[in-house]
Amino acid sequence: MRRLNLILLAIAIVFIFWLLNEVGWHTIGDYLLRVGWYWPLLLLPYGLVNLLESISWKYLLLTKDKVPSLNRLFWLRLGGESLNQLTPTASLGGEPFKAAALQKDGIPWDEATASVVIHKGILVLSLALYIFLGLALAPFLLPGASAHMGYLGLAALVLAAAGGVFVFVQAKAPCGFGLRFLTKLGVCPPALKEKEETFNHLDDRLASFYREHPGRCLLAFTLFFLSWVLHGVEVYLMFWLLGHPIGWDLAICLDALAMLFTALGFFIPAAMGVQEGGNILLALGFDLGMVLGVAFSILRRLREAFWLGLGLLAVAKEK
Would you say 247 and 126 are in contact if contact means Cβ atoms under 8 Å apart? Predict the structure, then answer.
C-alpha cells in the first residue's frame, strides 16, 4: 500500500508540473505577484483553524492532573497533522505521535489514545456537515451543476457514513473484538495478547466518553465545524488578494466542495494532484477560469508548506 501511495504521489507531481506548464509560468507569476507584501495575511486563518481544533481536543481530555496547556496542544496537533499529510499512511501517521506525546506528558495511555480516536471521528463528521453546507449552496451559485450534484452528494454521504460507522464502532469495544478475532484465527501476536487488559481499558474509555460526556462531544464538534468555516474565510481572502473578490457564499461553497475532493485523495500524501484537480474543476465550474484556479491552488499550497514546516519542527523537537 505504501508503494502504491508513492507511485500515485509521483504521478500527481508530474500532473501538477504539466498543468503549470500548460497554464504558463509567467501568467501564474503575475497573479501571485498581486498578493505582494500581504502574503502573511494568508497564514492567519489556518493558525486560527489549528487553535480551534486544539481547543476542541482539550475538551476530550478528562484528566485533572497534568492537564496540557493550550499552547502544548496547538503544537502537538500541528505536528501530528504534518505527519498525517506528508506520510503515506492514509492520513493516520500523526495520530500515534499525538497519543505518545500526551503519554509523555503524564496522561494515561488509554485516555491519550481515546482522545485522539474520538477527535478523528469528530473531524470526519464535522467535515461531512461542512461539505453538505457547500452542496446546499451550490444550486444557487451554479444552477447548471445540478447534473453533477448527485455524484458529489453520494461522495459526501459515503464520507458521512464512514465517519458515523467509525464513531459507532468506538462504543462497541473494537479493541477487545479485534483481539478475540485474531486469537480465534490463531494469528494474535503475543505482545498484543499481553496488553489485552490495557486495550480493554481503552475500550471502556471510548464507550463511556460518548455516554457520560455528550456535552463535551457536542462542543468539540461545534468548534471543529467552525474551524472548517474558517477555511472558507481563507478562500475569500485568497481571491481578494488575487484581485478577483468573490462573495462569502461562493467562498464557503467552493472550499467545502474542494474539501470533498481533498478527502477523496486521503490515500495520497497531502492529496497531491487530487486537491489541485478539484480546485481547478471547481474554478472552471464557477466561471473563475483555469488560471485563477491554479493561482488559488498555489497560494493554498504555500500556506500549507509554511504550517507543515512548523509542524515538522514541532515533531523534531519532541524527538
Answer: no
pLDDT-derived band at 118 (thresholds 50, 70, 90) equals very high
- Is residue 1 pLDDT above 60, yes or no? no
Q: Return d(Cα 145, Cα 116) in angstroms, integer.
A: 37
Determine how many CB atoms are found less than 10 A away from the CB of residue 309.
11
Q: Report CA torsion sign: 19, 78, 247, 218.
A: positive
Output DSSP code: residue 268.
S
* Mean pLDDT, residues 52-72: 89
d(CA 168, CA 204): 14
- CA–CA separation, 102 vs 216, rounded Å? 19
How many CA atoms does the CB half-sphere of 99 hold within 13 Å? 19
Q: pTM, whole model, 2 decimals?
A: 0.89
**What are the b/e assignments for 253-287, b being 16+ CB within 10 Å?**
bbbbbbbbbbbbbbbbbbbbbbbbbbbbbbbebbe
Cell of residue 99, nine digits: 497519543
Give CA–CA dist 173/26, Å, rounded: 57
